[in-house]
C-alpha cells in the first residue's frame, strides 16, 4: 500500500475467521515489532503495517519475514477481548430512522430496538471518524441500506445501521447511516491517552435506557 | 513572544508533522499537507523539524511580530519575504502575504515554534473534529499567537536552500504512483489521461475530474486502511487523492498511491491545475524516499555547523 504501508489480507467480508486472524497478526506485530514499524491498523480481515523505509534497509528480506509470520498468525488471545456495554436510548427523539428501519424489516419499532439490543457485536474496524466502530453481529432482519442522502449533521452518540453493520457516531459529523438510538457515553476523548472507547476485537452489548436515564447521564 | 494576526488569509492553520500512532483509533495523521516545506522552514530557523508552524492556503495572512525573531517561508510562491531562506525581523515588523502566485500552501516557521497545546501527541489543527492547533480552528483577525522562546541565539545567516533538493513543484505536475490493491479492476490506460483539480479539494482529499475511470467489477469492498496519497475511485469514476487529513480506513476501490516524495506536489495543487500520473516500482519509490531523507539530513547537519 504505497511506499510506507503494507496491507495483508486474511479474507474478505465480515467472516469472523479472517477477522480473528487479522487480530492475531496485529497482536503478534505489536508484541514483536519488525524493524521500522510505525503503527498497525487492523480492519475487517486485513492488517496494514505502516513503516519507515529508511529503517528497512533490505525490503525484500523484511517483507519475506512478515509474509512468513502472516501465514501462521497464531491465535488472537481471548484475554485481550474486552466486553463493553453501551447504554442506548431508543426513544423517538433520539431515533429519527427507527420507523424507516422497522418498515424495511416489516417489524414494529419496539421489536427493532429489542432485536438490536439483544444481539452480540464485535468491533471489526475503527475509522470513518476518530473512534467510529464498525460492529458485526447485527441481526440479518435489521440490515438496512444507508440513506440515499446523508445527513449534514449527525449528533455525537447516535447509534446507527449502515447496510450489514451497526455503528456509533463518536463526534458530530455528516453521515448516511440510519439512526435508531443514541448513547450518552463519550466514545472518543481527545484528551485521553487511549482516546477511543472501543478498539478492534472488543465485544459490544447494548443496554436499553429510558429518556430520563439518558438525560440524567451527564 | 506574541504574534498579532492583522489579516487571517483564506485558511491559515497551525500544523506540525502530524500524529502518527493513533490510526488504529481512527485518528488521521494530519499535519502539514506539504511536510517537506514545513520541515525545511523549521530547519532554517533552527527549530526541530516537527515544530508547529503556520500553513497558509492560497491567500496569506498579515502578522505583526512582537519581538526580534527569525522566520522562514517555504512552499507556495506567496510574495512577502524571499522564500526558502531565514530572515531576521526586528520587533514590531509586519509581514503580509497576498494571493499566492504559484502553489496552494505556504509555510511560516518562527524560531522556537508556535506554542499551542499538545492534543493526542500532536500540535496540528484537525479542522473536522475541531481540535489541536489554535483552538481547533483557523486563525482569525485579532488572534494573538504565542511562540516558544528559542533555545539558541537568533541567527539568520545569508544562506539559501540548494534548489536541487526541492520537490519539482509545478502547476501541471506528473505524480508518480504505485499500483493499489484494486488496480487490476481498472484499465491500465488510466495513466494516459489528464485530470483537472476540482474546487472542492481540501486537506482531506484532492478531487480530480477527467474521463471517468470505469471499474470492471461491482463487488462491494470492506473498509480497509487508506493513507495520504491513496488514489481512490468512487462510483462516479472521478478519482480522489487523499490528503493529510484523510480518514484512516475507506471502502472505495484503491487504484494507486502517490509516492511519498511526490506528496508535496499534491499539496501544492490548486483548482484548475492539471495533473497526470506515471507508475514507478516500489524499489524506485523507496530509493527516492531514502535520497530525500539523506538530503534533509545533510541540510540539517550543514545548518548545525553554520550555527556553531
Keywords for this entry:
heterodimer, A: 218 residues, alpha+beta, Gyrase A, domain 2, Cyclophilin, 2 domains, 7-stranded mixed β-sheet, 3-stranded antiparallel β-sheet, 5 helices, 12 strands, 29% strand, B: 308 residues, 7-stranded mixed barrel, 5-stranded antiparallel β-sheet, 13% helix, globular
Count of the separate structural domains of chain B: 2
| Greatest contact between two chains | A-B, 44 and 40 residues
What does the main sheet of chain A amount to? 7 strands, mixed
CATH topology (level 3) name of the largest domain in chain A: Cyclophilin
Number of helices of chain B: 3
Explain how this protein is built.
The complex is a heterodimer of chains A (218) and B (308). Chain A has 218 residues and is α+β, with helices and mostly antiparallel strands. Chain A has 5 helices and 12 strands. In chain A, helix 3 crosses helix 4. Chain A has 2 domains: 5-79, 2-Layer Sandwich (Gyrase A, domain 2), CATH 3.30.1360; 83-216, Cyclophilin-like (Cyclophilin, Beta Barrel). Helix content of chain A is 24%, strand content 29%. Chain B has 308 residues and is α+β, with helices and mostly antiparallel strands. Chain B has 2 domains: 2-161, no CATH class; 174-286, Cyclophilin. In chain B, 13% of the residues lie in helices and 27% in strands. In chain B, the strands form 4 sheets. A 7-stranded mixed β-barrel of chain B has the order 10-17-14-15-12-11-18. Chain B starts with a strand and ends with a helix. The mean pLDDT of chain B is 95. The chains are: A alpha+beta (218), B alpha+beta (308).
Q: What would you say about this model in short?
A:
The complex is a heterodimer of chains A (218) and B (308). Chain A is α+β, with helices and mostly antiparallel strands and 218 residues long. Chain A has helices at 16-31, 59-71, 98-105, 109-118, 211-216; strands spanning 5-9, 37-43, 46-51, 83-89, 121-126, 133-136, 151-154, 158-162, 165-168, 173-175, 178-182, 203-209.
Amino acid at each position: 500500500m504505497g511506499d510506507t504501508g503494507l496491507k495483508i489480507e486474511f479474507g474478505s467480508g465480515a467472516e469472523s475467521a479472517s477477522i480473528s486472524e487479522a487480530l492475531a497478526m496485529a497482536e503478534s506485530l505489536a508484541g514483536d515489532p519488525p524493524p521500522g514499524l510505525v503503527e498497525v491498523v487492523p480492519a475487517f480481515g486485513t492488517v496494514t503495517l505502516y513503516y519507515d523505509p529508511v529503517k528497512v534497509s533490505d525490503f525484500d528480506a523484511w517483507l519475506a519475514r512478515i509474509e512468513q509470520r502472516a501465514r501462521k498468525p497464531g491465535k488472537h488471545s481471548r484475554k485481550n477481548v474486552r466486553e463493553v456495554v453501551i447504554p442506548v436510548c431508543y426513544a423517538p427523539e433520539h431515533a429519527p430512522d427507527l420507523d424507516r428501519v422497522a418498515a424495511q424489516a416489516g417489524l414494529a419499532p419496539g421489536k427493532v430496538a429489542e432485536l438490536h439490543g439483544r444481539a452480540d457485536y464485535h468491533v471489526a474496524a475503527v475509522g470513518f471518524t476518530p473512534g467510529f466502530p464498525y460492529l458485526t453481529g447485527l441481526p440479518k432482519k435489521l440490515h438496512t441500506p444507508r440513506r440515499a442522502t446523508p445527513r449534514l449533521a449527525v449528533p455525537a452518540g447516535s447509534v446507527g445501521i449502515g447496510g450489514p453493520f451497526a455503528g456509533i457516531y463518536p463526534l458530530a459529523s455528516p453521515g448516511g447511516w440510519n439512526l435508531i438510538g443514541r448513547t450518552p457515553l463519550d466514545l472518543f476523548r481527545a484528551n485521553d491517552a487511549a482516546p477511543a472507547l472501543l478498539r478492534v476485537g472488543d465485544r459490544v452489548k447494548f443496554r436499553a435506557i429510558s429518556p430520563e436515564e439518558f438525560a440524567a447521564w451527564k | 513572544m506574541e504574534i498579532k494576526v492583522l489579516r487571517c488569509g483564506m485558511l491559515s492553520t497551525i500544523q506540525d508533522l502530524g500524529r502518527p500512532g493513533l490510526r488504529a483509533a481512527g485518528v488521521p495523521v494530519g499535519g502539514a499537507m506539504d511536510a517537506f516545506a514545513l520541515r525545511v522552514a523549521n530547519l532554517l530557523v533552527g527549530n526541530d523539524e516537527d515544530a508547529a508552524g503556520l500553513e497558509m492556503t492560497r491567500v496569506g495572512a498579515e502578522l505583526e511580530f512582537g519581538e526580534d525573531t527569525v522566520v522562514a517561508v517555504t512552499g507556495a510562491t506567496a510574495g512577502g519575504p524571499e522564500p526558502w531562506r531565514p530572515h531576521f525581523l526586528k520587533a514590531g515588523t509586519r509581514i503580509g502575504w497576498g494571493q499566492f502566485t504559484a502553489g496552494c500552501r505556504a509555510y511560516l516557521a518562527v524560531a522556537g515554534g508556535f506554542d499551542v497545546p499538545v492534543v493526542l501527541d500532536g500540535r496540528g489543527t484537525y479542522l473536522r473534529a475541531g481540535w489541536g492547533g489554535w483552538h481547533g480552528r483557523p486563525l482569525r483577525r485579532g488572534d494573538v499567537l504565542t511562540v516558544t522562546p528559542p533555545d539558541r541565539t537568533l541567527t539568520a545567516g545569508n544562506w539559501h536552500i540548494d534548489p536541487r533538493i526541492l520537490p519539482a513543484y509545478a502547476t501541471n505536475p506528473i505524480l508518480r504512483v504505485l499500483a493499489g490493491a484494486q488496480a487490476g479492476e481498472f484499465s491500465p490506460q488510466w495513466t494516459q489521461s489528464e485530470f483537472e483539480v476540482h474546487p472542492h479539494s481540501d486537506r482531506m482529499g484532492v478531487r480530480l475530474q477527467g474521463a471517468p475511470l470505469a471499474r470492471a467489477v461491482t463487488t462491494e469492498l470492506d473498509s480497509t486502511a487508506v493513507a495520504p496519497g491513496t488514489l481512490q475511485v468512487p462510483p462516479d469514476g472521478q478519482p480522489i487523492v487523499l490528503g493529510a487529513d484523510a480518514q484512516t480506513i475507506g471502502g472505495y476501490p484503491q487504484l494507486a498511491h502517490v509516492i511519498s516524495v511526490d506528496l508535496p506536489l499534491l499539496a501544492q495543487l490548486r483548482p484548475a491545475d492539471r495533473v497526470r500520473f506515471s507508475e514507478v516500482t516500489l524499489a524506485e519509490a523507496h530509493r527516492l524516499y531514502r535520497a530525500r531523507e539523506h538530503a534533509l539530513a545533510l541540510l540539517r547537519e550543514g545548518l548545525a555547523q553554520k550555527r556553531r
